[in-house]
Write a structure and sequence with these properties.
It is built from one helix and 13 strands, in the order βββββββββββββα. The protein has 183 residues and is mainly beta. The chain is globular. It has a six-stranded antiparallel β-sheet, with no helix packed on it. A five-stranded antiparallel β-sheet has the order 9-8-11-6-13, with no helix packed on it. Helices cover 3% and strands 39% of the residues. The longest helix is centred in the C-terminal third of the chain and has 5 residues, at 160-164. The two termini are 31 Å apart.
Length: 183
């Protein structure tokens, strides 16, 4: 049985440390069940991200979509930040490692900004409970001093989007998540 635990830092974030089973043929892990997460809904889309060592992705957030991340190859340093007004953990930042070795999964609820740094070349798969919607693809600048995340890399490789996202204090009206916004 996997170890499933709610974060002690950000309410609604859950980690899964699966139990591996194997023999001379290899290993097997059960990595996801919707019933493990109180906010879990049907995951309707699966995505894969291959990144080079040193890449930084984020901080992204959604108003209506939850994500479930699993790093199947390499090592990712995950940064999470609670943006939800009314959340008892609003403003909290959490960092954790997920990798092909530890097989840890992380459930990220709507309103929690999320990103990762590639500590090695990696493959990250993620399930989402909403189809791609450009109106729900939002972000906070990756190096916001109010968040003060340690990304674990020097000289990060960033997209223009991630370099130019607004600071947390400058999020546009109506684009700041709050508890209960999820449809």
């Amino acid at each position: 049985m996997p170890k499933i635990a709610e974060s002690k830092v950000i309410q609604g974030v859950w980690t899964v440390d699966p139990e591996g089973h194997g023999d001379e043929r290899g290993r097997f892990y059960e990595t996801y069940r919707r019933e493990w997460f109180p906010l879990g809904r049907e995951m309707v889309q699966g995505n894969r991200s291959d990144k080079a060592s040193g890449a930084v992705v984020g901080l992204h957030y959604h108003l209506h979509q939850a994500d479930y991340w699993l790093c199947t190859r390499g090592t990712a340093w995950v940064v999470l930040h609670d943006l939800r007004e009314g959340s008892p953990t609003d403003g909290a930042t959490q960092q954790l490692e997920i990798s092909g070795e530890n097989c840890r999964g992380v459930f990220i609820p709507p309103g929690v900004a999320h990103g990762f740094a590639s500590l090695t070349d990696l493959t990250l798969t993620y399930l989402v409970d909403g189809y791609y919607n450009p109106d729900d693809e939002l972000g906070v600048v990756w190096d916001d001093p109010d968040i003060a995340a340690d990304w674990g890399v020097t000289d990060p490789i960033l997209s223009d989007r991630d370099k130019n996202n607004p600071r947390r204090t400058a999020l546009p009206a109506g684009r700041r998540p709050y508890i209960g916004i999820r449809r």
